[in-house]
Amino acid sequence: MPLTMLAIGEKGKIRELTGDLGMRRYLAQLGFSLGKGIEIVQQSFGNSLIIKLDNSRLALDRRMALHIHIDMFKTGEGS
Q1: Which residue, 17, 47, 48, 51, has most beta carbons within 10 Å?
Q2: Quick check: helix, strand or coil at residue 68?
């Protein structure tokens, strides 16, 4: 499922980066890599998400977030 499907406070693990080679490289340069945990911190009414990746918070455009596919953690997992 795309990252945009998570609600605030929900966590997942990155399963796949999609898009063209340039998009995948850009996401990798930002720190997105397979198996890494990710959490939605805030959603704006506009087009952006604030996410927690490792010990950093990043603002991410929803169009870009659609290229990050995750497996959602079950309750208690990934804490």
Answers
A1: 51
A2: strand
